[in-house]
DNA sequence: GTGAAAGCGCTAACAG
DNA sequence: CTGTTAGCGCTTTCAC
């Protein structure tokens, strides 16, 4: 039913190869014939079938993107960055939400292979043995973000989460805080683990005691931040409360602040709270969130740029790109 | 290089059609041969090339999704709904960010056609003549959200934005407010237009004056809410200030509240602010946002369900699905 | 410059 | 039940 290259050829009175040539500018075609072909294309409103094209070219101009949780405000921004660059180079995005489930991710990785995507961007979460197998078994270029593996051959774009968390914690310490709690992310997630490591490192290095009662693990969502804070409030005596809380992301920080406020505690007067990411809400939240700003959009954009290079066989100037972060001082932390 | 169905056939000592049959369970195959084929598939780690498959089947199991702005927290949640249902039925998502630009959207629509997607979900923004042409020219099933057209044949899933905005405004009125301003969305966006209409309707019906100085247009982003509020503050005398502001979405409401707070005005004591959408931040924001809750995830899920039905030739029980909304009373609006 | 024909990897008649 | 074969719509040698 749809019009094919054959129809165009017939209409223009030429061969299909000629049509293909003018469509792709792959070989010189006399201007007279070119015009006839173009006219036919227009008249029939022909649109090439990219499946057929891809099948012979072995190129789909498709990039698979795996995110753990698209509803987490971090990822849409990164995806926007990916999309923008990908589009610029003529690639489109096949999106998969893994819910952080490793089996789902593996399953999707297989689908991506079947769909013959030209490349894959895998955002955060862990890299398991199964992944390693996958890396071995396929030659689809892949770049990962927020999580460099030990494998030298898998390019990645990250920030230095450990150092960022170290700096954030040190910032809190420089403000005079000594009892600093942390609401961490899941420890099987690299960002979760690294940020916890950074916190630990800073505490240790400053000879500050880590009170395990002030340590809670969340899942990067608002609710888990709430729960963590509630638990701290419930289990820790008033006078033992931390003077500062470092949350592994802004969402959890916001959840924690809500609970604090609801319990008549003031932020930052009674307790300082520091976030991580600097999502859109951080500057407008009250108190405006003191946080670690990640170049979220750029993470996506750089990953996409890297992947495109990889796909097109260019050399990467560096396989691991570390992007800068900044501590943004706002109003949720105070000097004591 | 990659292993094809031919390789499997050779390995198993059967014909390609037999391999195809066991892979698709399309025809009975003796269990002995089936086992041999499966063994070969495993041994060679064969993965069918879905391009070739799609080319002959004329079915890609791909759904194109067009969103105006993936960074707007509304859409990721809707996308999650789409993804979940689509996946359940074996479809994957091709994502496009249109930035609200109509030409970009049209361009993407063409790409989707070339990519032979089985269906399209188009979220919000307008439906122009060009779109109409597109609808005419293609037979790809499409469902639109947040924006029903006059075309009876294009299924959609929406909430009644006019009535929701009407109810929201009436709610404010019922609280005793008379000077109610509005920060609307772009009027060429259906949600923007309808919500403004609903506001207008409620005001008129309650014989309340609409002060044009209290009307500002934003673009659904936090910053535009800020700007709108700043402008109102700058141009309107203190004693003429509205007692309530209705923002066309939560982001703008949050932006507005920030400006109010920064200017020493209290929310809701001095000015009430009502939002729309109930994005994740609404309940945790301070003051917790009084808003109109849309079933965001469901909008995506229902749209996807509808589209799948359409693709698979099932009858739709209704072409237009109107989902319920609810006014959520929290702390950003007060009775005066 | 242009056309004929092979083939990308798979499915689905059509025979047997 | 199983194999042979003809395409799906396109690109690309290879001749002319």
Automatic annotation (TrEMBL), chains A, B:
Q: Which residues form the HTH lacI-type domain?
A: 3-57
Under InterPro entries, the record lists:
HTH_LacI, LacI/GalR-like_sensor, Lambda_DNA-bd_dom_sf, Peripla_BP_I
Molecular function, one GO term? DNA-binding transcription factor activity
Keywords annotated in UniProt: DNA-binding, Transcription, Transcription regulation
Does the keyword section mention Transcription regulation? yes
PANTHER family per the UniProt record, alphabetical: HTH-TYPE TRANSCRIPTIONAL REGULATOR EBGR, LACI-RELATED TRANSCRIPTIONAL REPRESSOR
Q: What is this protein called?
A: Transcriptional regulator, LacI family
Lineage, please? Bacteria, Bacillati, Bacillota, Clostridia, Eubacteriales
């Amino acid at each position: 039913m749809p019009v094919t290259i054959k129809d165009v050829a017939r209409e223009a009175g030429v061969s299909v190869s000629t049509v293909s040539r003018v469509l792709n500018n792959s070989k010189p075609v006399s201007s007279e014939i070119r015009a006839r072909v173009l006219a036919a294309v227009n008249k029939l409103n022909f649109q090439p079938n990219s499946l057929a094209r891809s099948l012979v070219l072995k190129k789909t101009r498709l990039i698979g993107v795996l995110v753990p949780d698209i509803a987490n405000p971090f990822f849409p921004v990164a995806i926007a960055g990916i999309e923008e660059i990908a589009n610029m180079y003529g690639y489109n995005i096949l999106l998969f939400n893994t819910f952080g489930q490793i089996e789902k991710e593996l399953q999707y990785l297989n689908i991506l292979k079947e769909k013959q995507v030209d490349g894959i961007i895998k955002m955060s979460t862990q890299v398991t043995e199964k992944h390693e197998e996958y890396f071995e078994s396929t030659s689809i270029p892949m770049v990962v973000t927020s999580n460099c593996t030990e494998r030298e051959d898998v390019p990645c774009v990250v920030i230095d989460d450990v150092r960022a968390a170290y700096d954030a914690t040190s910032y809190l310490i420089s403000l005079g805080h000594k009892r600093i709690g942390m609401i961490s992310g899941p420890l099987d997630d690299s960002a979760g683990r690294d940020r916890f490591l950074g916190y630990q490192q800073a505490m240790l290095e400053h000879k500050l005691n880590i009170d395990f009662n002030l340590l809670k693990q969340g899942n990067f969502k608002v609710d888990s931040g709430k729960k963590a804070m509630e638990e701290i409030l419930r289990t820790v005596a008033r006078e033992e409360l931390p003077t500062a809380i470092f949350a592994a992301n802004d969402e959890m920080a916001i959840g924690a602040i809500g609970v604090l406020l609801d319990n008549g505690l003031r932020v930052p007067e009674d307790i300082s709270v520091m976030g991580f990411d600097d999502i859109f809400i951080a500057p407008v939240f009250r108190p405006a969130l003191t946080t670690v700003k990640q170049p979220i959009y750029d993470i996506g954009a750089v990953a996409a740029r890297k992947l495109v290079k990889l796909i097109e066989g260019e050399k990467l100037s560096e396989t691991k790109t570390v992007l800068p972060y900044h501590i943004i001082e706002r109003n949720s932390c105070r000097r004591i």
